[in-house]
Amino acid sequence: MSLFKHKVNRGRRGFTLPELMVAAGVMGILAYGTSMIYFSVLKIYNQQIWRFPPYDAATAAVARVSDEMRDAMLIEEHGPDYIVCVMPLKDANRENVLALGPDGYQLSQGDRAEYYLSDQTGSLDAEGNCLWKAVKPPGADSFTPRVKIADNIHPELNPTDPDTGQPRVMFNYWPDDVRLWGVEVWMTSTAQVHGQTQTQTAHSESYLRNK
Q1: Could you give phi then psi for residue 161, rounded to 5 degrees?
Q2: Helices (H) and strands (E) in the chain, counts
Q3: Distance in angstroms (rounded) separating the CA atoms of residues 133 and 111
Q4: C-alpha–C-alpha distance, residues 101 and 136, integer Å
Q5: What is the number of structural domains in the chain?
Q6: Is residue 47 part of a domain?
Q7: Residue 55 CB partners (closer than 8 Å, separation 6+)
Q8: Strand 196-207's sheet: what is its strand order?
Q9: Which of 163, 82, 158 is nearest to 125 (CA)?
Q10: Segments forming the whole domain that contains residue 68
C-alpha cells in the first residue's frame, strides 16, 4: 500500500525552484522581445502615417510648386513668401508655342503664375498660412487666385539660415550661371497628429528647364 502511494506522489511532483526560475526567465525574454517588436512597429506606423496628407502638407506643396516651376521661362519677381514665374505659352495640345525672332525661334511668354501665402479666401492682399496659386493670362490686368495648394504653412518655423540667423525664406532665386537659375523652396507645415502638434519641413531646389 505504501509503495502505491509513493508512486502516486512521485507522479504528481511539482516544479522545482530552478525550473520555475528558468521558466520565468524565458517568459520574461519572450515578453521583452514581443514588446520591443510592438513598439518598433508602432513607431514605424506613426512615422509613416505622418507622411501622408493632411499631415505632411509641406512635402506635397513643395513637390507641386517645384515641379510646376521647372517649366518656367524666368522668374519675374520674388520675395520671402511669394514668387512670380513666367510660363511658356501653350497651344491646344499643351505644347510650347515657338515664335520666330531675331535670334531664331524662341518660346512665347504665356501665363504668369504667382505662389504666395494668404488666408482661406486666397486674396493677394490678405495674410495667412494657406499656400495659393494665382494666374495672370497674357493681356490680363491682374492675378486671379486659382487653387489653394496647402493649409498650415508656417515660414516662421523653417530651419534657421546660418547666414542670417533667421528662419529660411520660402522662396529664393539665383539668376546667375553659378546656381544655374535655381529656385530654392523651403516650407514647414503643422498638423495635429494623435492630439499633438507636429511640424514637417520640406525643401527642394529646382532649375528652369525652359530658361
Answers
A1: -80, 120
A2: 3, 10
A3: 12
A4: 24
A5: 1
A6: no
A7: 49, 191, 193, 198, 200
A8: 171-174, 182-193, 196-207
A9: 82
A10: 57-207
Does pTM top 0.85 for this prediction?
Answer: no
Each residue's pLDDT tens digit, 68-112: 989 998 899 999 999 999 999 988 888 888 887 777 788 889 999
Radius of gyration over alpha carbons of the chain, in Å? Answer: 31
Strand-strand pairing, 104-107 and 171-174: unpaired
Residue 122 grid coordinates: 486666397
Asked whether residue 132 is assigned to any structural domain, the reply reads: yes
Phi and psi of 58, rounded to 5°? -65, -45
Instruction: Give domain status of residue 24, yes or no.
Output: no
The answer to the question of residue 123 being in a domain is yes
Question: In this predicted model, what pLDDT tens digit does every residue of 113-164 receive, in sequence order?
Answer: 999 999 999 999 999 999 999 999 999 999 999 999 999 999 999 999 999 9
